[in-house]
Amino acid sequence: MSIAVNIISAVIKSVVGDKVGSGLIKELTGISIDGISEKGVSEINNFINNGKFRIERVLSEEKNDYVVSEIKDLLSKVDITDEVLRQCKYNNMILEDFMWRKYATYKNMSTHIEYEGEIKVGLFKVAEVLTKVMLESEDFSNKMLIQISNAVDDANAEVQKVSDNLKKNFSKIDDNSQLVLSILLMILEQIQKMNMQANETESRGNEAKKFQNDKKKEYIENWNSRLFLHIDNDENPITLADAFIIPDYEIHKSIKRIGFSINDSLDQIIKKFINYKKTTTMLIAGVPGIGKSSITSWILDSRS
Q: Can you tell which superkingdom this protein's organism belongs to (predicted)?
C-alpha cells in the first residue's frame, strides 16, 4: 500500500474507535526507537489526528445518531486501496458514490434505504475530508522525506532498525500502531531508495568522467566528414570514407595465438585483432601522413 492509503486507513480506524496519538505512544513504551524515528512517529500521529478531528467534526453536525452509526459502520468495513484511489481520481464525488454503493451492498438493499438522503449527505462530507487528506498526504510525505532525510546519517541502518522493531514487537502493538510504524518505514525506505539512486547517478557520472577524453566520436566524425580540400565544395564533397585505401603493411611480430597469417590483408589482420577475446596490444608504425589516424577512424566506424 502507498503512504496515502496507509494514512487514510489510519484516519478511518481512529474515527471508528481505534486509538492513535497518545495511545500509540503507550503502545510503543519499551520499544527501542531513536529520536529521529520517534519524531517521525509524532509527526505522523499529528497528521492522522488532524484528519480524524475533521471527520469527527463533520459527523458531529449530523443530529441523527442512526445516520452517524451507519456511516461509522461503513467506514469500519470499507477498504480504500490504491486501486480505489486511482478509480476515484482523487474526486470526492466519485469516492462518495463508491462508498454509497458499498453501503447499499452491505445492506443488501437495491431499492429503499432508510435515511438515504441523510446518509448520502454524510458520506459526501466524509469523502470530501478524505479526499483532502489524500491530497495533503502527498505534501506531508514529501515534507517528512526531506525532514527525516536531513536528520538521518544512515538510512539503511534506520530502515533496518525500524523494520526489526516492527517485526519484534508486532504482537505488542495494535493494528493502527502497526500502520503508523509502517508509514514511517515506507518513508525511510523511500529515502533509502533515493540515496541508492543518487549514488548510482554519481557513480555513472564518475564513470563518464573517466572517458571524457575518449576520442572515438571524434575519429568517427573525421571518417565521415569532408576532406579539408572539399570543405567549401558543395558538389559531391569527398570524405575520408570515400578516399581511404587500405595501405600495404608488414608484420614485425606476429602473435600466433591470434591467428595472423602472412597472407592476411591489413583489414583481415585488424578484424582478427578486434575479435580476439583476450587482452593484447597492436602497434601500428608508419611515417607521418601514411594513414595511421585514418586506420583508427576506419576501425572505429566499422565497429560503431
A: Bacteria
Question: How far is it, in rounded angstroms, from Cα 17 to Cα 7?
Answer: 16
Rg of the chain, C-alpha, whole Å: 35
Q: Do 141 and 224 have their domain in common?
A: no
Cα of 30 vs its chain's centroid, Å: 34
Can you give the residue range of the structural domain that contains 84? 3-205
196 and 234 together in one domain: no
pLDDT digits (tens, 9 = 90+) for 102-136: 998 888 766 677 888 999 999 999 999 998 888 88
The answer to whether the beta carbons of residues 128 and 57 sit under 8 Å apart is no
The C-alpha cell of 34 is what? 531513536
| Per-residue exposure over 131-151, b if at least 16 CB sit within 10 Å of its own CB, e if not | bebbeebeebbeebbeebbee
Do 190 and 294 lie in a common domain? no
Q: List alpha helices for 211-291, DSSP H.
A: 216-224, 240-243, 266-275
- 20 and 73 share one domain: yes
pLDDT tens-digit map of 64-109: 999 999 999 999 888 888 888 788 887 889 999 999 989 988 887 6
The structural domain count of the chain equals 2
